[in-house]
């Protein structure tokens, strides 16, 4: 099981120091670094910046939002970063959610499965430098830039059986959030069904799980460090009617608790929402506690089928640096 580092989004000048830490992650043996986007910093620009400051670590967009760009623009961006990095780019895609798609980008959130399928096919065609004509008049065009790799690895962020099947069918990897080894068998069965539809197996398919990490002697105190992140997604992402992360938590056996977190978050009671997130849920989807406990849990992720475990870190640059070192220590203890 490989280790990755998910930087998330840049939130201000202080996060430039976080970007500088990627060189340390590379030295420690992390194999991929991911960036994200919602309605702040974009995911692509930091990766282009990192391409010139690193040499071996892979650079992943986790994810580029499908409603934000035409598929041709995404193919151009992927080819450019792959060239700048010497063939180290990984392209993650996702439809985002209604709030961002409609409220920020002005793109209707409808038929997400069909949209994703058509988008991926267009991107693949363009990156293969086959001729593309999206619509209208004029001759079809071929991407003028030649990527370093003939096939840039493509990932889908997916939640729910049909989306997971689509990831298995169309992509080279799955970007997972709130991955719990206890529930992995059902999720991977959906991915496997998609792979079989494409005439492939799970061999070589990258199950890349973004996992919050908090190290320390007290598990409950470590969970408190992760609560704001969990409460935001379970309570505040999307709308009351369409929150995929809330639905995911409910499907994992926390239906009443997820409803309470959402009720409080949408009412403006963020502290109450964070307090309502059950410790049992956080402990399933995060790595918490002493290094020895985290090492045991890393083995559970590996045994559940995770092939890349991405450290989702937050806090000051100093805190993130300690997590980078601590997770490597736990991985070594686990024999990974």
What does this structure look like?
The chain is an alpha/beta fold and 336 residues long. 49% of the residues lie in helices and 15% in strands. The protein has an 8-stranded parallel β-barrel, surrounded by 7 helices. Helix 7 (161-170) links the parallel strand 5 and strand 6. Helix 9 crosses helix 10 and helix 9 (219-236) crosses helix 11 (270-276). The mean pLDDT is 95.
This entry's quaternary arrangement is single chain
Any low-confidence stretches, pLDDT <50, length ≥5? Answer: none
Trace the largest sheet across and list its strands.
Answer: 1-2-3-4-5-6-7-9
Please tell me how large the radius of gyration is.
Answer: 19 Å
* Tally of helical runs: 14
C-alpha end-to-end distance? 6 Å
Number of strands: 9
Topology (elements, then pairings):
Elements: E1 2-6, H1 16-20, H2 22-28, E2 32-35, H3 44-51, E3 58-65, H4 71-84, E4 89-94, H5 98-104, H6 112-127, E5 154-157, H7 161-170, E6 173-177, H8 184-197, E7 206-215, H9 219-236, H10 244-266, H11 270-276, H12 279-285, E8 287-289, H13 291-303, E9 308-312, H14 317-333
Parallel strand pairs: 1-2, 1-9, 2-3, 3-4, 4-5, 5-6, 6-7, 7-8, 7-9
């Amino acid at each position: 099981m490989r280790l990755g580092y998910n930087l998330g989004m840049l939130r201000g000048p202080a996060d430039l120091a976080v970007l500088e830490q990627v060189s340390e992650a590379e030295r420690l043996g992390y194999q991929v670094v991911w960036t994200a986007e919602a309605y702040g910093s974009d995911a692509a620009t930091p990766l282009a910046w990192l391409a010139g400051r690193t040499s071996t670590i892979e650079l992943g967009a986790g994810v580029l939002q499908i409603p934000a760009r035409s598929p041709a623009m995404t193919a151009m961006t992927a080819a450019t970063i792959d060239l700048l990095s010497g063939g180290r780019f990984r392209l993650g895609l996702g439809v985002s959610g209604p709030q961002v798609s409609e409220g920020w980008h002005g793109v209707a959130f409808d038929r997400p499965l069909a949209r994703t399928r058509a988008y991926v096919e267009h991107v693949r065609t363009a990156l293969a430098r086959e001729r593309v004509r999206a619509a209208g008049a004029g001759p079809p065009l071929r991407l003028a830039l030649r990527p370093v790799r003939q096939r840039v690895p493509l990932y889908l962020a997916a939640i729910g059986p049909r989306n997971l099947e689509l990831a298995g069918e169309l992509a080279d990897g799955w970007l997972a959030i709130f991955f719990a080894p206890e529930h992995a068998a059902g999720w991977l069965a959906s991915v496997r069904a998609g792979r079989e539809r494409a005439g492939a197996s799970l061999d070589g398919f990258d199950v890349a799980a973004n996992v919050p990490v908090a190290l320390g002697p007290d598990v409950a105190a470590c969970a408190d460090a992760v609560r704001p992140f969990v409460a935001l997604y379970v309570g505040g992402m999307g709308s009351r009617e369409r929150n995929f992360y809330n639905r995911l938590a409910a499907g994992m056996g926390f239906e009443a608790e997820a409803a309470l977190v959402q009720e409080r978050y949408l009412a403006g009671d963020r502290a109450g929402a964070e307090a309502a997130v059950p410790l049992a849920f956080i402990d399933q989807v995060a790595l918490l506690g002493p290094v020895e406990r985290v090492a045991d849990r890393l083995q559970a992720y590996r045994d559940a089928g995770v092939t890349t475990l991405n450290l989702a870190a937050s806090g000051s640059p100093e805190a993130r640096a300690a997590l980078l070192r601590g997770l490597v220590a736990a991985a070594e203890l686990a024999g990974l």
